[in-house]
Amino acid sequence: MSRIAVIDTETTWGNVVMSIGVVIADSSDYAPLDTGYFVLDPEYREGGLFSHELFLIPEKDTMVTSRKDALGKIDGWFKSEGVTHIYAYNASFDKSHLREFSSFAWYDIMRLAAYKQYNPFIPDDAACCKTGRLKRDYGVEPMTRLISGNRRYCEMHNALQDAIDELDIMRMLGLPVEAYEIGRI
Q1: What is the reported pTM?
Q2: Mapping DSSP to helix (H, G, I), strand (E, B) and coil, where does residue 143 land?
């Protein structure tokens, strides 16, 4: 496996996917190789909590299309790039919303980022459960702030930018892709 995909979705008020962001990356160093951003029509027209973030990506990099076409394009893209493994922060959420990709191996980035035994950036005095998971503040925004040291970082809630940020968490953690086997869902 030399290429992986990181996926993020944003949903409507009715909990339906309205956008999908994808980053294909090298599995050895998490360097981004390509990106794709899909706004699903008509779903996005329902609106959602982060609708105002949908069109922050330049128009030339945004594909407004049907869900069927978007998923078909992503599937073909993955096949042409040899992608068989998908990573996401809180992957069970994205996987449950993208059932068409259930044949791919899915891995949860949060399963390593939020646990003291895998994340050396978690301070010794952090409130953790007996399992080693942080009791609070283990979402993308607080985790990126912790790992990067950038206290001003704010999650955009744009599916493509969030997928890029989730890949950055993997890169900053510095764990080999094989370590994510513990987060397979």
Answers
A1: 0.96
A2: helix
